[in-house]
Each structure stands twice: as structure tokens, then as C-alpha cells.
Amino acid sequence: MENFQLIFGIIILTLVGFVIYKNAFNFYRISNLPKDKVKFDIIKPLFKKIAKGEIPEPKLLTKYAFDIKTREITYQLLKEYNRIDLFPKEFNTIEKGAETNLVNWLDFPGDLEKVPDEIEYIEKVNIDDNGTQLYYHTYKFKVYEPSYAAKCGWMIGTVGPYSDVSVPYEKPKVISSRFVKSKYGEVTPKEEVLWTHNNIYLRAPVHNKIYES
User: Fold this and answer.
1) Residue 44 burial by CB count (10 A; 0-12/13-18/19+): exposed, middle or buried?
2) Which of 25, 75, 152, 202 has the largest CB neighbor count within 10 A?
3) Are residues 76 and 38 in the same domain?
4) Each residue of 57-89: pLDDT tens digit?
5) What domain range is 73 assigned to?
6) 136-164 confidence digits (pLDDT tens)
7) Phi and psi for 149 in degrees, rounded to 5?
8) How far apart are CA 145 and CA 45, in angstroms?
């Protein structure tokens, strides 16, 4: 009986040890994946082709550049592999870059925490900053139920400031929306930009980071 218990105990310990080893190995394998593979996982089919030095089909590039959620990461992928020439030209603008910046910010854990169900470009708003001409791009967006923000209707989002030397997909210094306080129709894009510029951008300790309301 004692021999049986001893053998049974050894078997159990062996199985437990194997499970621990297997889990540890899996953790090691996952945690050591190339950073690019993890970073670009959302556009994996495109990443695989670019990483192999292949030229993706135009429809695949258009698919990810058209999608507001994946547009920015698609641009970053092509830039890292020196293939910006493949990025669809109709999306290679500051306006399109600002739109995807705003959407990804809204989806990030914080206030809205989701991609807007609808988003539309409003206008470019120019401002004079002590003699320097800057501008922001403004958008209106809304979400559907069951989001708590559905009751707000259209809300304004601002991205900027940009200048004459700005380039597409540069990191904006400010991405902002006050949500319920920036309802489209109750606040004009110009008013929202001025509030954003005066209360966020100008109050930032330095102007080389992204600041959000």
C-alpha cells in the first residue's frame, strides 16, 4: 500500500511539474515575441507581407488605411519598413492622420473608451498664437446605446495645433474633447478650439507632448 502511495505521489508531482513547465514555457515564448509582431498584430496579414519584403495587394493596403482604427498603425508599419510609398495617397494627409489620432484616443481607456459609431470632419480652424499661425482640425462624433455618451448626440473633438511645416501623421500635441460640454450645435468648432488651445495647450509645462482634456 505504501509503495502504491509513493508511486502515485511521484506521478502527481511529475504531472504538476510538467504543467508548471509548460505554462512557464508558454509565458516565455509569448513575452519574447518580436515587438513589431505584437505592435502590428491588429494588421497581421499586412505585417507578414511587409516583413517578408513582399508588396501587398492594393486592396489590402486600402482596407487598413480606410479603417480609422487601423490607419495610423498602417502608416507606422510602412514607415518603419521604409515603404511609405505604398501608403494610399488619399489617406496621406494631416486631416486623415488627425482623424485616426482622435479615434484611437477616444478608444483608449479613459472617458469614452470606444471607437465612435459615427465621425465626420467639420472644419479647419485657424488661430493666431502671438503672431504664429496655427490651426486645428475639428470633427464631430457620436456613439450609440448602450454607451453612456449616446445621450450627448454629436460631440466635437479637436486635434492639433498644426502649422505650415506640419506633416501627415506627426504626433499632435493636443487631442481633446469635453464630450457633454462640447455638444455640436451648442458649441461652435471655433469656440472649442479656443478653449482647447487656451486651457490645455498653453497651460502645458512643455509643448512637445500629447495633452488631453
Assistant:
1) exposed
2) 75
3) yes
4) 999 999 999 999 999 999 999 999 999 999 999
5) 33-92
6) 999 999 999 988 889 999 999 999 999 99
7) -85, 0
8) 32
